[in-house]
Specification:
Elements (H helix, E strand, L loop, with lengths): L8 E2 L16 E7 L5 E7 L2 H6 L20 E7 L3 H19 L4
Antiparallel strand pairs: 1-4, 2-3, 2-4
Protein name: KTSC domain-containing protein
Organism: Bradyrhizobium ontarionense
Length: 106
Amino acid sequence: MISTWSEWKRYPRPGRGDNIVAPITPGIYEVRIAATGALYSFGAVDNVAQALALLPVGHKSWFGRRDPASLPDLEYRTCATSTKADAKAAAERMIGRRETYMSGAA
């Protein structure tokens, strides 16, 4: 079973002390660049909160710190599901709809 999508939330930037608010259950996440709406990352995972926390954002410097100037301003939304199989099926349907739309058949 699939629930509804959350509202778009600002992805935390290093040093601001923000937190990711996401389910610790299977589900789907979508991350976009806030300024353009361009897709940054998308996935069907076992633990949505963990996947978002491990998302590679920005570039690391030689000293291991992320360069805050190179980080895009990101937004994310989540959708919890009962199982990872449900998440994968829902993600495949979304990808199929997006491809149909982009090909002009929608």
